[in-house]
Q: What sequence folds into this?
């Protein structure tokens, strides 16, 4: 067993040396201009001696280095990267779009657990789920089944007990939250 283990470590050590040597022999690849897709002749010869798996690993490493240098060059030039310029939609917007799609009975609507979870977590917050979307959310909750329904009722009851123990509050946001909890409890209980 120990002999076999030693043999495996020797093989991996040889592979690591070979990859390291190949990476050192191809220093020009990351610095090559984006249009030039070929590595130097010396690097190509080394790539030919590598196994397919080793070649993939080396190519990924070189590609990563090229991307890093490209980003660095763009940053130095003061140009924003394409990723940062694209406006990513927030989880809130995605969940509200999901809810609106359900309410409008769109053909391309599909159940998405993450969107439902987001809605269930934030349904009492007026900032996250505006008043204009709350009636649609209540209609969505009517169809809630199984464990999700049970957990929603349990959480609403726990929040209601917590708010009752806190005493009467003059905070209008707290009153709005209480009203939403009562509506959910009436609907699901």
A:
């Amino acid at each position: 067993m120990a002999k076999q283990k030693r043999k495996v470590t020797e093989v991996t050590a040889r592979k690591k040396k070979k990859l390291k040597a190949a990476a050192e022999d191809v220093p020009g690849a990351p610095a090559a201009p984006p249009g030039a897709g070929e590595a130097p002749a010396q690097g190509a010869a080394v790539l030919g001696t590598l196994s397919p798996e080793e070649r993939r690993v080396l190519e990924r490493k070189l590609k990563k280095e090229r991307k890093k240098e490209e980003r660095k060059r763009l940053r130095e030039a003061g140009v924003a990267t394409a990723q940062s310029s694209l406006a990513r939609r927030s989880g809130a917007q995605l969940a509200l779009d999901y809810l609106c799609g359900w309410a409008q009975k769109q053909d391309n609507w599909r159940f998405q657990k993450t969107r439902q979870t987001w809605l269930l977590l934030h349904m009492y917050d007026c900032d996250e789920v505006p008043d204009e979307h709350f009636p649609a959310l209540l209609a969505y909750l009517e169809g809630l089944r199984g464990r999700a329904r049970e957990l929603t009722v349990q959480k609403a009851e726990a929040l209601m007990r917590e708010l009752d123990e806190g005493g009467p509050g003059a905070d209008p946001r707290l009153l709005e939250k209480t009203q939403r909890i009562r509506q959910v409890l009436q609907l699901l209980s």
